[in-house]
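User: Is it possible to get a 3D structure for a protein together with its bound compound? The compound here is NAI. I've pasted both below.
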Amino acid sequence: MPSTITKPVRVALVTGAAQGIGLASAIELLKDGRKVVLTDLRLPDFNEIPVELRANAFSHILDVADKEACRQLVEELEKEHGGVDILVNNAGLSIKNAAGQSNGILDVQLHEVQKMLDVNVLAMLNLCQLTLPGMKAKGWGRIVNVASLAGRGKSIVAGPAYMLTKAAVLGLSRSIASEMGQFGITTNCVAPGRILTQMAMQAGEEVNRNYAAQIPVKRIGEPLEVGAAIAYLSGESSGFTNGAVIDVNGGFLMT
Ligand code: NAI
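Assistant: Yes, that's possible. Here is the predicted structure of the complex:
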């Protein structure tokens, strides 16, 4: 019997979408027929999006830590596209020291922790608060928050500031999932392991080679492999997946 699941045109807002996992997720959502608003500190290069998908792609500059800019954008999307149905909170940062490493527990500064909290967690909370009322009114919504292996278990390169923000993403997501599931809104996380993006390249090739050797699949992941998990969690058929975490880490952490 043919599937009865239809795919209405949903509007997805993806943060940190100029490159890496955010851009790959945006492309996967476009392949699924979504309208996608790509946002970042700079505009994405549309040449990186397959030409046949570009008609449904839109872009806006957005610093997720700027609460007023977020409010304005969500309002604008409400007027232009009927609101945000899918929110992918992907923007994130990991501050490194002069040696290109994360400060350890004895050196980490509170201002670093605050900056990472602002972008990795509080901005996510703010965007959820801004978009949830619209999703609730429609009785449908998908929120996908990008956590990390670093919030799930031990990490080889992440420091305490990054790890605490990514653990916080998991708690925040479970809380929203518990409260909003009854309105047809699911909230889930992806927890990528080592993925080959600019963020991972900060650590240098040798660190990444050593890392790959410890992963059962013996390689580092591709942004597309996280994008595919995000697209699944954003899908029409993922409505019974709520409060979950999909580990995309090549088997580095198995729970
Ligand atoms: P990336 O550094 O290539 O991309 C991150 C994007 O976020 C950049 O385009 C950057 O401009 C944007 N961004 C940073 N601060 C922002 C702000 N205030 N407002 C708006 N955009 C901002 O990194 P990647 O790897 O694509 O990271 C995406 C997400 O995946 C992050 O949340 C990161 O923590 C997470 N992640 C990445 C892993 C990896 O190995 N690459 C592993 C686990 C999690």
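The first strand starts at residue 11 and ends at 14. The chain has a mean pLDDT of 95.
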